[in-house]
Design a protein that fits this description.
eight-stranded parallel β-barrel; disordered C terminus; alpha+beta; globular; Jelly Rolls; disordered N terminus; TIM Barrel; 4 domains; about 900 residues
Length: about 900
């Protein structure tokens, strides 16, 4: 097939564009209201599953796939913040293009048939730089953030109105035929309100009244706001919200942020939340009267550029979400939650029909909640869709057998069983039947590449480096152009930079007399530079040489320095690593230095540099010249780099590389570098830093049972927090891609590799005791009662990523296999046909389904006992050429 589009393809493309661009055609117009039980959409109560996706943390080319995978996973709603700093980087100069094309994003959600929850804020927190506020807001005269302050309220109202008016103009609200069913004003203000006293309380009332007055025509939410006014819904955020109740009986129970993972700091461990616990939390929420639940995040994405907040939040915003940073399915989390959502949807007719459930105590730590639209007397006609029950065991340690309506059920510890018909279990939160996927980072050689891969690399499973042809240029230390200025005293970092760069140079001169030199020699004293308080990072140069560095949040710095007789150039490079995004009065937090800066150890006493003349230089020369841009990089004075010339601090590096073939997500391995920033074809992929996590604090095994916190089930101890950096496919061309890096501490660019990330190993483990497939519940014979749950068998479903097929079955055993994924082994009970049966069903296909029964595998391999099927399979791209994998 040629590269040109056929007429049919052009027509399909035109239709897609039309669907995306024409507003008001996604739905028939419908109203959204609410009562104490649920949101009411077009006259009907709904139980809603929402998927958090932040549009700037992905590229527009990624959005359709992310939305589609969210829908396939059972989502009804997409939720996103609105990022003020991205949309109005300069006051009254707006940006709604590229990753900030919010209208396009909302229309894509609508065209997929999903609803949208738009959280305008405009404070978002979100681990986003400055909490989503534009830095210029800080400089508005007389402003105080998030309180009863006239300048702030004026700016806030202007932006919120801008967004609401834009959505109205594009006809994107539900009553216009659009997908937006709910909005949010402010964000988790209840945590901060007491810090502002009465002015905080007045601000809450003002914000709610202002929002309602904008005429959006859909409900507004305030999360974590127990004093939200009567006409705004207060909602819950947290790991668990099953005990939450709104501040009025007239409001439904909404969970706006279910934290399914956590964010990560440089030098931190990687947090993971077990899916069994996550599913338990969701099931408990709906069990106890909840009606709207949103995963924060369903897709986390990437903090491209300098959007990461902090201080010190990493570039990856993976969040251990069901869709990983690159948009790949995280299994079994995505699959197990998909099954959970299907089970909850089976219960929806009963859940929406009942104002409050019947509570039945089943044991000391076991309970049932029954939703029965027939009243308190339970009756069945076939399988009863008007009665649903949740059986919970909140014991953290032991399984318990309970009797519910005359029937026995075994409940694993810390689990909920869902009975859509009040009799048959469709799902248990602790019994995971979804596949496990093992992600692989691979080097896929482009078809056009001339790179030779030595056999020793294939044997050693090493990856060829991105390039052997690097060029370099040094970044000047200190002042580098006429735009610097001199002032007396220490100026606050952000007041000078306006966050146009992470970097601010502070430059002064210190005179050392002959008497001082003699004094130091005679008394063996070394002068010391003391900075009373500093954040986030400082590098100290004396006479052009790096003397020391320090990092922290408002920490004291004590650095010995070597000075010579005469004038000495002292240069302090202050760096931000993401601006504060959370807390009361965070606009006053600032950056750089506080208090005095002294030089101690002089013969005639300490030298107070806080009152000296300082020259200020904003940013890096390479930043100013944009030597990372495709059109500008050749103007710099690059020279060839040789391996013996590294490591070199404060250097720029560049090379060119070809894109890997295929469609798998692309990543850069920057594990050989130190700290800096990177650009590909002029796109800023973010900060990098190979800061290492503590060696302790990780668990060998993860026990899902019991309340979760961000320190539980952590991984990556003793390793760099992040080495893989996402390069979106849409930023790449087939060949000759420009990579430019600024390196501060002296990494080795020759060891950088360009890789792809994909799921190459998938595993399943399903036993006869697993529940039959959820699709059985839609079978007419089951609905009518002709087919019972005992007439069906469990199934194993295996699926590779899109564009991949199951290439081989590495292991298959039906019987009593031992071990876990990539460590399976046969037990003493094994069906000889196991591998051939699975291979016939799966090999060469993107996905397959295998029944779990003796009949499927040619008979009972051993008498007695529950049989289990364990499978390990390999996936490969449908068209794979020269693939070298690192696992």
């Amino acid at each position: 097939m040629s590269g040109a589009l056929t007429r049919l393809q052009w027509l399909a493309l035109a239709l897609t564009v039309h669907l995306v661009m024409v507003a008001g055609e996604f739905f028939e117009p419908f109203n959204v209201t609410y009562d104490h039980r649920a949101l009411i959409i077009d006259g009907n109560r709904r139980m809603l599953i929402s998927a958090g996706i932040h549009y700037p943390r992905a590229t527009p080319q990624m959005w359709p796939d992310l939305i589609a995978k969210s829908k396939e996973g059972g989502a009804d709603v997409i939720q996103t913040y609105v990022f003020w700093s991205g949309h109005e980087p300069v006051r009254e100069q707006y940006n709604f293009e590229g990753r900030y094309d919010i209208v396009k994003f909302v229309k894509l959600v609508g065209s997929s048939g999903l609803y949208l929850h738009l959280r305008i804020g405009p404070y978002v927190c979100a681990e986003w730089n400055f909490g989503g506020f534009p830095l210029w807001l800080r400089d508005v005269p007389g402003i105080e953030f998030r309180t009863d302050n006239a300048p702030f309220k004026e700016e806030m109202q202007r932006f919120v109105k801008k967004i609401v008016d834009l959505m109205l103009e594009e006809m994107l609200f539900s009553w216009q035929g659009g997908p937006i069913i709910m909005l949010q004003i402010e964000n988790e203000y209840g945590n901060m309100e007491s810090s502002y006293g009465q002015r905080g309380k007045d601000y809450v009332k003002w914000a709610a009244t202002m929002a309602i007055g904008l005429g959006a025509g859909v409900p507004w939410v305030m999360c974590k706001q127990v004093d939200a006014p009567e006409f705004v819904i207060d909602a819950c955020n947290g790991y668990y919200c099953d005990g939450f109740k709104p501040n009025s009986y007239k409001k439904p129970v909404l969970w706006t942020e279910n934290w399914d993972g956590w964010y990560t700091i440089w030098g931190g461990r990687l947090p993971h939340r077990p899916v069994e616990d996550l599913a338990f939390a969701v099931a408990r929420f709906f069990q106890r009267g909840g009606s709207f639940q949103n995963y924060y995040m369903f897709f986390g994405g990437t903090n491209f550029g300098r959007t990461s907040g902090g201080p010190n939040y990493i570039t990856s915003y993976d969040y251990d979400a069901p869709l990983d940073e690159y948009g790949l399915l995280r299994q079994p989390k995505w699959g197990h939650l998909k099954d959970l959502h299907a089970a909850i949807k089976l219960c929806e007719p009963a859940l929406v029909a009942v104002d409050s459930p019947q509570y039945i105590k089943l044991g000391p730590m076991q309970e049932a909640h029954v939703y029965n639209s027939e009243g308190q007397t339970l009756t069945w006609s076939g399988n009863n869709s008007r009665c649903s029950a949740f059986l919970a065991n909140i014991d953290e340690h032991k399984a318990v057998s309970v009797t519910f309506l005359g029937q026995a059920y075994t409940l694993p510890p810390w689990s909920v069983s869902i009975l859509p018909d009040c009799r048959n279990v469709a799902f248990n939160t602790a019994k995971v039947g979804a596949q496990t996927s093992i992600k692989t980072v691979a080097f896929d050689l482009p078809q056009s590449t001339n790179v030779y891969v030595p056999r020793r690399l294939m044997i050693q499973n090493e990856v060829p480096h991105i390039s052997e042809a690097w060029m370099t240029i040094k970044e000047p230390i200190g002042a580098w152009n006429e735009n610097n200025f001199t002032a007396q005293g220490i100026l606050e970092h952000l007041h000078v930079t306006k966050d146009r760069s992470d970097y601010l140079w502070y430059i002064t001169r210190v005179y050392v007399s002959d008497d001082d030199i003699s004094y130091w020699e005679e008394s063996e004293v070394t002068p010391v530079l003391t900075i009373e308080s500093m954040r986030d990072l400082v590098r100290i140069f004396v006479n052009g040489q790096l003397t020391g560095s320090a990092a922290g949040r408002w920490v004291k710095v004590v650095q010995p320095v070597q000075l010579v007789q005469g004038y000495n150039d002292l240069v302090l490079l202050s760096q931000t690593v993401g601006l504060q995004n959370y807390g009361a009065f965070f606009e006053k937090d600032g950056a750089g230095f506080r208090g005095q800066i002294n030089l101690t150890g002089f013969k005639n006493g300490d030298m107070d540099l806080s009152k000296s003349l300082w020259t200020y230089q904003i940013g890096l020369k390479g930043e100013f010249l944009e030597i990372y841009a495709v059109d500008e990089h050749e103007k710099a004075g690059w020279t060839d780099l040789t391996p013996d010339a590294i490591p070199s601090i404060f250097s720029w590096y560049k090379t060119h590389f070809d894109a890997p073939d295929g469609t798998d997500p692309v990543v850069l391995n920057l594990g050989s570098m130190g700290k800096g920033q990177a650009w590909v074809n002029g796109h800023h992929i973010g900060r990098y830093w190979t800061k290492v996590a503590p060696k302790n604090g990780c668990q060998r095994t993860c026990d899902y049972r019991g309340p979760y916190n961000s320190g539980k089930c952590a991984t990556n101890c003793g390793q760099p927090t992040q080495i893989w950096y996402h390069v979106p496919r849409s930023w790449l061309q087939t060949s000759n891609n420009l990579l430019v890096m600024f390196e501060e501490t002296g990494g080795n660019p020759f060891e950088i590799s360009i890789n792809t990330r994909s799921t190459r190993t998938i595993c399943g483990r399903v036993s006869e005791s697993h529940y039959p497939p959820l699709r059985m519940w839609s079978n007419p014979d089951f609905i009518s009662g002709k087919l019972s749950i005992n007439d069906t068998t469990p199934e194993m479903q295996l699926q590779c990523e899109d564009g991949h097929t199951i290439s081989s079955i590495e292991f298959a055993s039906y019987g009593n296999p031992q071990g876990s994924c990539q460590r399976f082994s046969r037990g003493n009970c094994h069906a000889p046909k196991s591998k051939s049966v699975v291979a016939q069903a799966c090999q060469g296909r993107n996905s397959c389904v295998i029944g779990i029964s003796n009949a499927v595998f040619g008979g009972d391999p051993c008498r007695g006992g529950v049989k289990t099927l364990a499978v390990e399979a390999r996936c490969k791209p449908a068209s794979s050429i020269g693939s070298l994998a690192m696992e």
